[in-house]
Amino acid sequence: MPFFTASSSLHGTAFVVQACGELDYQYAPVFRSEMAKAWESGASSVVIDVTGLTFCDSTGVGELILSLQRSQALDIHLSLVGVHGTLERILTITGLRPAFEISPSVEEALRGT
């Protein structure tokens, strides 16, 4: 049974990626592949739902930073949803939290797009 899953769906002009489990070195390629679908979708905004993450190491944070950079390069609005636990602490300690738009729910993130 995998320790990480990523799924996605299109909501109008917004692409929602749900990440569940352990986003680490081993599963970063799964996340990257799902994000590639977002970039190719033609969506004007991307919402990354990390509510289901149980663990995120430096590689996982790196993937989120790459996603932020890619969205900026493509002029696509990006928001994170459900930031909690270790990921919230890492983003706060590193000073990265303000770099990301963070919403409490997918619904609220979609309203903001």
Automatic annotation (TrEMBL):
InterPro entries: Anti-sigma_ant, STAS_dom, STAS_dom_sf
PROSITE patterns per the UniProt record, alphabetical: STAS (PS50801)
Domain STAS: 16-113
CDD domains hit by this protein: STAS_anti-anti-sigma_factors
GO molecular function, one term: anti-sigma factor antagonist activity
Family note: Belongs to the anti-sigma-factor antagonist family.
Protein name: Anti-sigma factor antagonist
Source organism of the structure: Streptosporangium subroseum
